[in-house]
Amino acid sequence: MSRFTSNFLTIFCACILVSGCAGMQPLLYSEIIHKSEKNAAPLSFSPEEILIFNSRLANLSPHASDIKYKHLNESFQNQKNDTERLKLVILALTPDHTFSSHKKAQALLKPMQEKISDFTPRQQGLIILLGRLVAERLEVDAQLAAEKKRADTLAQHLHELKKIEEIMNLREKPSLLKK
After folding, report:
1. What is the rounded distance in angstroms from the CA atom of residue 35 to the CA atom of residue 38?
2. What residue ranges do the domains of the chain occupy?
């Protein structure tokens, strides 16, 4: 048997062994989640419900989104529950709306992040995901503000340079007329 063939068979066998072990991990992880969810407190919100809300929100018109936000906000003010809190976070993360605010999303999510151990692993996963999304959006907002400030400064410098150029051109014109 050639050297190439023996190396190929060795790598092939190693891949089969590794892929067989990799198939076990999701099974074990799902068993752990299933056991921990049995011992956890009852669901205060359904992660699936929040994700369905997010997908439905994408199909709403801006006007319908505004109405949905007003109703949810009023309902949340009357009775603060986790489902409406997370829906408001999703709405606050939606771009190009009057109610869009990454800082508000962060403020809404903070109480849930502080008591994250009270939630099931699936709920924790959604809270962590939304927390990372909010942090990322806030970082992008900060970068955008810094770039805007830099662009404004450069525009001001350009304007000043144009003024200097005009002054220099005015000074040169009389000397050109004398020749």
Report:
1. 5
2. 46-145
